[in-house]
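Lab notebook, bench 4. Still working through the backlog of constructs that have no structural model yet. Next entry is a single chain of 50 residues. Request: give me the C-alpha cells for it.
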Amino acid sequence: MTEVIGTHRVAALLSVVHGDLWATARQEARQQALTAVQLLDRVDRSGGHR
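Model written out:
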C-alpha cells in the first residue's frame, strides 16, 4: 500500500513540476515572439528591407 501512495505522490509532484516548466516555456516563447514583432515593427518604420 505504501508503494502505491509513494508512486502517486511522485506522479503528482512530476505533473506539478512539468506544469511549471511548461508555463515558463510558454511565457518565454511569448516574450520572444513579442520581441520579434517589435523588431520587425522597428524595421518597417525605419523603411529597411526585410
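Notes after review: DSSP finds one helix and no strands in the chain. The mean pLDDT is 86. Flag for follow-up if needed.
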